[in-house]
Design brief:
By secondary structure, the protein is mainly alpha-helical. 71% of the residues lie in helices and 4% in strands. It is elongated.
């Protein structure tokens, strides 16, 4: 029986079948094409997985070796920090107590020369700062021992030793860093090495702008500049003390020093 299409007539859309709550449009999707595309995707995934497995199989010794090395390094570092560094710090701090006691007594003026010597060399079965600085090198306590050894050497007239130990001392604290740097300047000044002394005094003054540090070393820099015959620099250092640090101890006789520098 012949069928005629009327003008404006539209063929009804095929019914959509619902499968697992999803709709599939049978007019636009060919089953063979779907199967072919799915097979291609899985085949690609299989090939990628196979290549990965082959790579791992070929290089597993290298991969596991690298992981093992990283693990060993990490564990070794933790063990070193726990059982070597920490243990050395504790032992060094314990050993340093007696030397610090000698040093403190020396600064209080009780037989300073002999007490500074004991602080350096040790006494009562305990190490002095010289041995502590060497034995515990690389620890915070060993680093601090360098500072004490330098200061004790400076106070007992061993200026070369003072320079040696103080140059080894490192500190993130501005105050201690400035004191150590300025003390190196003192050692050079005692040796009549005024140019070297001036350099260290200026460095020490530049470490901190605090009233406890900068005017103290500006004053020393000014006096050494006078020794070198450099009145212009001396006047500059003295004038800063008068203008900025007039209330500090360093400014007590500053007018007289300014007069000498003019």
């Amino acid at each position: 029986m012949a069928t005629y299409n009327k003008r404006g007539y539209k063929a009804p859309k095929p019914k959509e079948e619902k499968i697992d709550n999803e709709f599939v449009d049978d007019t636009n999707l060919n089953v063979d094409e779907k199967d072919s595309t799915t097979a291609s995707v899985f085949n690609s995934l299989d090939q990628t997985a196979s290549k990965t497995e082959e790579f791992v199989a070929r290089n597993q010794k290298v991969i596991f070796g690298a992981v093992f090395v990283i693990a060993i390094v990490a564990v070794s570092y933790l063990l070193y920090q726990k059982f070597v560094v920490d243990a050395n710090e504790q032992e060094a701090n314990k050993e340093m107590f007696q030397a610090q006691k000698y040093f403190q007594q020396a600064t209080e003026g009780v037989n300073p020369d002999s007490l500074y010597t004991l602080a350096l060399k040790g006494g009562e079965g305990k190490y002095g700062f010289v041995t502590l600085a060497d034995k515990y090198s690389g620890t915070d306590a060993g680093n601090l021992a360098n500072y004490y050894a330098g200061m004790a050497s400076l106070n007992t007239g061993k200026f070369d030793d003072a320079i040696k130990y103080l140059e080894k001392f490192k500190s993130k604290e501005d105050f201690l860093s400035a004191l150590a740097t300025g003390a190196i300047g003192d050692a050079h000044a005692e040796k009549k090495q005024y140019k070297e002394a001036l350099d260290f005094y200026v460095k020490a003054a530049d470490v901190s702008k605090s009233d406890a540090v900068r005017p103290r070393f500006l004053l020393k820099a000014g006096k050494v500049s006078l020794e070198l015959g450099n009145k212009a620099d001396a006047l500059k250092y003295f004038s800063e003390i008068k203008d900025t640090y007039d209330n500090t101890q360093s400014a007590q006789n500053i007018d007289a020093l300014i007069g000498l520098a003019q």
